[in-house]
Amino acid sequence: MKERRGLAKTEEKNIEKTRELKSAIPAVDIYENEDEILLHADMPGVLKKDVSVNIDNGTLSLSGVRKIETKGVLKWEEFNDVEYIRSFSIPQTIDAEKVEAELKDGVLKLHLPKSEAAKPKQIEIKAA
Amino acid sequence: MFARVSDIDRMFVAMDLLQSRMGRLFSNFDKSYLSGPAFTLTSNSPKTNLLENGDNFEVQAEVPGISKDDLNIKIQGNYLEIGGKRSVDTPDGYKVHRNERGGSTFSRSFTLPADVDAERVEAKMKDGILYLTLPKSETAKSKQITIN
C-alpha cells in the first residue's frame, strides 16, 4: 500500500519496537485410554529448558520458545523464532501430581494419568 | 456552521487511522507463514530456511517427530531433494480425541543458487530440525581477482 499524505493532521506516535517474538499454535494429538490421557505437541527446535508446562485449576498450559541460529545471509526464510503456546482445559479426574513430560525430536509428549477414583470400575452383580 | 469543521476533521482522522491499519494488515498477512505449526505450506512439506555462509550453503528444515530413517536427501549438482514419511504414532489401545499432526509422505525439491559438492555434505538432526551444510563446489566458489 503506498503511503499517501493524511487527510488531516494526526499525532500517531510510531514507537520503534525491536522484532517481537511471534506466537504460534503447535499442532497436537490427543489420545486417551482408561488410565491416562496422552498429548503429543509439535514443537520443533525447542530446547528442554525453554519449555514450561503448567497445570492450574483444570487448565493445562504449554509454552515453548524457539530461537533459530542464522549465521550467514538468509536467502529465504520460512520459519524463525516463535513461541509455541496453547492451553487446554482438562477434566478434574487428572492427577496433577503424576503428570510426566518428555521432549524428543521436537515433539513434547505429556502423560496425564487419571486419578484412581476416576478409573472405570466394573461393579460385580451378586446373585441375590 | 463553523463548529461543524471539527466534526469533519475528526472523520478524516478516523479514515486515516483505518487506512494505516489496513496497510499493516496486508503486510502482516504476508508474514504469517513464519509462525504457525510445522508442515503448513500448501503442499504439506516442511518449512525450510536457506542461508549462505561464504563457501557453504546451509539448509534448515522443520521436521518434528521424524527419525533419521524416515528421511531421504538427494543431491545432484545444484538440485536438492528432501523427502520422507511422517507416521502417526498412535499407541495401541488408545482412543483418538484429536489428530492435528497428521501423517503422510512429503517431498520437496530446491534449485540452489550454485552447484554443491555432494561428497562433502553434512546432515544433522537436532530437536526436530534438520541442518544441512552444503559446501559449494570449486567452480562455484567466488574468487578474488587481482588487478595488475
CATH topological fold name of the domain at 22-69 and 77-116 in chain A: Immunoglobulin-like
CATH topology of the largest domain in chain B: Immunoglobulin-like
Shape of chain B: flat
Largest sheet of chain A: 4 strands, mixed
Query: How many domains in all of chain B?
Result: 2
CATH class placement of the largest domain in chain B: Mainly Beta
- Approximately how much beta-strand content do the residues of chain A carry? 35-45%
By DSSP (H or I, 4+ residues per run), the number of helices of chain A equals 0
Largest sheet, strands/sense/barrel of chain B: 4 strands, antiparallel
How far the N terminus sits from the C terminus of chain B, by CA atoms, comes to 80 Å
CATH architecture grouping of the largest domain in chain B: Sandwich
Radius of gyration of chain B: 25 Å
Oligomer: heterodimer
| Radius of gyration of chain A, in angstroms, nearest whole number | 23 Å
Structural category of chain A is mainly beta
Net shape of chain A? elongated
The count of DSSP E runs of length 2 or more, i.e. the number of strands of chain B, is: 8
Helix-residue proportion of chain B: 10-25%
Short characterization:
By secondary structure, chain A is mainly beta. Helices cover 0% and strands 42% of the residues of chain A.
Structure description:
The complex is a heterodimer of chains A (128) and B (148). By secondary structure, chain A is mainly β. Chain A has no helices and nine strands. Chain A is elongated and about 85 Å long. Chain B has 148 residues and is an alpha+beta fold. Chain B has two domains: 1-30; 38-90 and 101-140, Immunoglobulin-like (Sandwich), CATH 2.60.40.790. Chain B has one helix at 4-30; strands spanning 48-53, 56-62, 71-76, 79-86, 95-99, 104-111, 122-126, 129-135. In chain B, a hairpin with a 2-residue loop joins strand 1 (48-53) and strand 2. The longest helix of chain B has 27 residues, at 4-30. Chain B is flat. Chains A and B meet through strand 1, strand 2, strand 3 and strand 6 of A and helix 1, strand 1, strand 2 and strand 5 of B. Strand 2 of chain A pairs antiparallel with strand 5 of chain B, so a sheet runs across the interface.
